[in-house]
Amino acid sequence: MDLMEKLTILANGAKYDAACTSSGADRAPTGAGIGSSMPCGCCHSFAADGRCISLLKVLMTNACAYDCAYCVNRRSSNVPRATFSPEELAQLTIQFYRRNYIEGLFLSSGVWNSPDATMERMVRVLELLRRTYQFHGYLHVKVIPGASEEMIRAASRLADRVSVNIEFPSERSLRQFAPDKTRSSILRPMGQIKQMIDERQTLLLPSSGQKALAAASGATALATRHNRPNGQPLAAAGQATQMIIGASPESDYHILRLAEGLYQKYSLKRVFYSAYIPVVEHSLLPAPHTQPPLLREHRLYQADFLLRQYGFTSAELLDETEPNFNPYLDPKCNWALRHPAFFPVDVQRASLEQLLRVPGIGPRSARRIVAERRRTALDLAALKRMGVVLKRAQFFLIAADRPRGTRLPAETVARALLDPKIFTFGMEQLSLFAPAGLPAAQDIKSIGQAAEEAVHALARDVRAA
User: Fold this and answer.
1) Which residue among 339, 351, 411, 419 has the highest number of C-beta atoms inside a 10 angstrom radius?
2) What average pLDDT does the segment 31-52 reach?
3) Does residue 270 sit in helix, strand or coil?
4) 294-328 exposure pattern, b = at least 16 Cβ within 10 A, e = fewer
């Protein structure tokens, strides 16, 4: 099998992994090597300076000792198998970089013989790129659950980001669909990576604080320096994980609570949500050709941003009585309609935290409001210039030309709040939610009719609020 045949098989096998972002990496060239990694995004994303960049996203091998029911590369799957040698993959990455195809590598793998044997080959690729080819671009490696701490530390020394896929939101689902994996084998590496990153932070503190933190964590300055060869920090862009959505029965509330706990306990940079795409037949999984729950994935990403950047908690967005997101409203608008006593918010007096609760106001526009209102009274036109999405925000705030008590017809508000994404993803997605009081997707004759039904349903909520 030639190199391009291997690449075709192994790149295709890696396409279902969503957890590959280079955000936060900043590895400058030393003058002796090639490449650089500025804070930027992943495949077909944009860097801080506006560049569109790409990563080579590939598996080391798709031969796997595990038999996970959801995975196209599982042991019992009848697919062509291929394996890169470390030298082949390192050389291929450098050739692609020199041809300006990519600016980094995202490396994952099936489990070849054992977790440690697989990680050893992956680490070898990183060593060749960093030390032989002097490559300073972005490297993201997927840690194999069950690998030893020595292998995890070796990968973290060389990669900008490391990640361990948690796969399913509950241990029960993990046992059901991935019997060769355990929750502890996934969470243990996460804890080890966090500890390594915490050790790195000691170098960023003043000397007295550095000693105190090192003493508290049992680390020494010598050990910390040893883990930063050539002055490069361990896993500079942190760690991430991925959950499969729609293959198991957990609610959005369960998933969001888990994500919140992972952020708090393991200091993750991102939790990625991957709508399950049926690629294999299994009695416990959705049938092949079933529509993937893309709208549900979208809602979880929206809620995830609210957790990380807006100060919300999972308990504020969902609860046991309402465990799934509203398909017609984004989570922030849904929260606003459920908490009418919080509004309207006066843009001249509200705190930054209060402004962030207003639909249509993001972190950047909220900070601009706080800075600008010291000099002048803000009207709707001024807010629009600051980046506020007035289509939504105008119903929830008080401005110089929007006094308290201004009310618009409920249908007008509902049309403005209705999320157009539900039509982008397709009305068949709504059958996954089946919200009370609305027709099932298969009974809706047209998108126009669906929109009207959604407006009338939302108008009832607006009137109640």
Assistant:
1) 419
2) 50
3) strand
4) bbbbbbbebbbebbbebebebeebbeeeeebbbbb
Can you give the pLDDT at residue 411?
Answer: 86
Answer CATH for 3-312 from 3.30.1330.10, 1.10.287.70, 3.30.479.20, 3.20.20.70: 3.20.20.70
pTM: predicted TM-score of the whole model, two decimal places: 0.84
| Distance (Å, whole) CA 2 – CA 9 | 11
For 180, half-sphere exposure in the C-beta direction (CA atoms, 13 angstrom radius) is 18
Look up residue 1 and give its amino acid: M
Instruction: Give the separation between CA 437 and CA 371, rounded to whole angstroms.
Output: 44
Residue 2: predicted pLDDT:
86
Tokens standing for residue 194:
């966090």
Give Cα separations from 124 to 107, 160, 169, 344 (angstroms): 12, 15, 32, 58
Token pair 């922030």 is found at 332
Residues 6 or more apart whose CB falls under 8 angstroms from that of 366 comprise 352, 355, 356
Q: Is the dihedral of CA 382, 387, 392, 396 positive or negative?
A: negative
In the chain the first and final C-alpha atoms are separated, in Å, by 65
**Helix 183-201 / helix 252-266 crossing angle, nearest 10 deg:** 40
pLDDT band at 454 (very low <50, low <70, confident <90, very high): confident
Burial class (CB in 10 A: 0-12, 13-18, 19+), 230: exposed
Residue among 404, 402, 396 nearest 354 (CA):
396
Answer yes or no: are the C-beta atoms of 164 and 145 closer than 8 Å. Answer: yes
Who's near 351: CB < 8 A, 6+ residues apart? none
For residue 199, pLDDT over 90 is answered with: no
Q: Where are the domains of the chain?
A: 3-312, 405-465
